[in-house]
């Protein structure tokens, strides 16, 4: 797998559509089509059509309806330069080479249409663990994910690795994933869960962890 995190996405190393215009904006050199988060287009140059992308079959439609996982997608078709962003979040690129990545649906910005997608349950993860269902992408092609704030990339092959379920953005599908629970009173060590539970990762691969669960809306009142 190639990524800007690994230092192996220098210009010319991987041909394809995706490049970072800046840390918060993706530039897609479009000559065909790409799947992107609905509403993520901020500008484009050239000739392009934008269409709603369905769930891709009744099975995926049911999974999205039942799990709440996945993100509304649009299919962009045409030629030119397409610029994508979401809430000024940081953007990170991955180039899959006949391999897979698991991504929180809320963090998917765009990916190439030849990648196979599915919704899978995180084994052993109860509702309190967050990230109960995630989106998996597999094949060869580009994936762009977003994080709220600068993330950390953890190498799970070095040691058993644990992350809060709502902070773990993406990880290698080669990893074994489970849940680690801390039953000590007052040990609410994670940011997102109501109980002390973290996703546990073991094996050869990486885990991308963001610094925040995302922007929050401050308390407010409505004036009549």
Automatic annotation (TrEMBL):
One Pfam assignment: AIM24
The protein, known as: AIM24 family protein
Highest classification ranks of the organism: Bacteria, Bacillati, Actinomycetota, Actinomycetes, Mycobacteriales
């Amino acid at each position: 797998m190639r990524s800007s995190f690994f230092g192996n996405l220098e210009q010319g190393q991987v041909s394809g559509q995706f490049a970072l215009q800046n840390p918060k904006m993706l530039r897609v050199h479009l000559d065909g089509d790409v799947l992107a988060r609905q509403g993520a287009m901020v500008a484009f140059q050239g000739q392009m059509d934008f269409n709603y992308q369905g769930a891709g079959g009744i099975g995926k439609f049911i999974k999205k309806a039942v799990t709440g996982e996945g993100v509304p997608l649009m299919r962009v078709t045409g030629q030119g330069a397409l610029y994508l962003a979401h809430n000024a979040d940081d953007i990170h690129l991955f180039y899959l080479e006949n391999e897979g990545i698991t991504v929180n649906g809320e963090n998917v910005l765009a990916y190439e249409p030849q990648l196979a997608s599915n919704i899978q349950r995180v084994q052993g993860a109860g509702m309190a663990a967050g990230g109960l269902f995630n989106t998996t992408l597999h094949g060869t092609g580009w994936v762009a994910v977003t994080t709220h704030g600068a993330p950390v990339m953890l190498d799970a092959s070095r040691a058993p690795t644990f992350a809060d379920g709502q902070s773990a953005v993406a990880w290698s599908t080669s990893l074994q994933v489970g849940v680690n629970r801390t039953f000590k009173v007052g040990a609410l060590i994670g940011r997102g869960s109501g109980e002390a539970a973290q996703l546990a990762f073991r094996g050869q691969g990486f885990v991308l962890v963001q610094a925040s669960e995302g922007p929050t809306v401050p308390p407010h009142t409505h004036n009549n």
